[in-house]
Amino acid sequence: MSKSNHCPCGTKKNYSVCCEPIHNNHSLAITPELLMRSRYSAHVKKLVQYIIDTYHPSCNAEEFREGIIDSVELDWRKLKVIASSLSKENANEGFVTFKATYSEDGQLHQLKECSRFVKEDGKWFYIDGDVE
């Protein structure tokens, strides 16, 4: 398998068996980490609608379409998941801490965030996060 077939999310699996099925069926992201990885891959693959659809409905992500389009235009290079956990108090809440590396105007940048996800109607959604 060539590196170009590897899923952008960093699992070393082929995209066709990793994030692509989730991109086609959001409910296959059965953990917060799978959803976060699929959202990162969606940035690499420029899947704006998927990113919008996986925000929690309360975020009104459609209103931020232009900003999401800008974010997918960045040159996303690497994802590293640092930690992933479910809330001890609420099984429908989870957290994923990650570092994402991207290039903009020839400079490498790193985004580190602890993202919060909520499960509603059997699907995980990104709701917010703390950027470090």
From TrEMBL:
* Record domain YchJ-like middle NTF2-like: where: 31-129
| HAMAP family for this protein | UPF0225
What top-level branch of life does the organism fall under?
Answer: Bacteria
Name of the protein: UPF0225 protein VF_1604
The similarity comment for this entry is:
Belongs to the UPF0225 family.
